[in-house]
């Protein structure tokens, strides 16, 4: 019988809400030695994820996109909306301002090969395991899958 994410996920994940102050969320990450937190709305439904990568903008700031001036006009060489998102993350004070929306979620019965493929294809480090009401019941990370490979 093949393993599922329920077999190796970390159950009962610590969650935060969009209105949670960013400093409080960062403290949770550091004190619990974790790299990400599911973000839930008032009903407990997963609406985002706050990861260490999201927080790097706080220190690094946003980089102005390259542009050229032509006839008194600014022509951006990269999409300026990306810069606006990065700037918003760099200046955010709450989890909701910094989190990544629309988290990638899986059900507890998702197979490990399927979870590994999702992590690889989406270039993410964790999946939020949710119940039938989209409420987080666990977290499965790349490290969890690697650990399972060693144990097999």
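Sequence proposed for the structure above (152 residues):
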């Amino acid at each position: 019988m093949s393993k599922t994410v329920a077999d190796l996920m970390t159950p009962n994940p610590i969650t935060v809400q969009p209105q949670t102050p960013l400093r409080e969320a960062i403290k949770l990450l550091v004190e619990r030695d974790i790299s990400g937190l599911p973000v839930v709305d008032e009903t407990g439904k997963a609406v985002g994820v706050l990861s260490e990568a999201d927080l790097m903008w706080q220190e690094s700031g946003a980089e102005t996109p390259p542009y050229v001036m032509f006839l008194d006009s600014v022509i951006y060489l990269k999409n300026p909306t990306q810069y606006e998102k990065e700037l918003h993350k760099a200046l955010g004070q709450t989890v909701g301002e910094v989190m990544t929306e629309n988290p990638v979620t899986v059900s507890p019965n998702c197979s490990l090969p399927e979870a590994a493929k999702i992590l690889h294809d989406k270039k993410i480090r964790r999946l939020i395991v949710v119940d039938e009401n989209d409420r987080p019941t666990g977290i499965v990370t790349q490290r969890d899958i690697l650990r399972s490979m060693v144990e097999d």
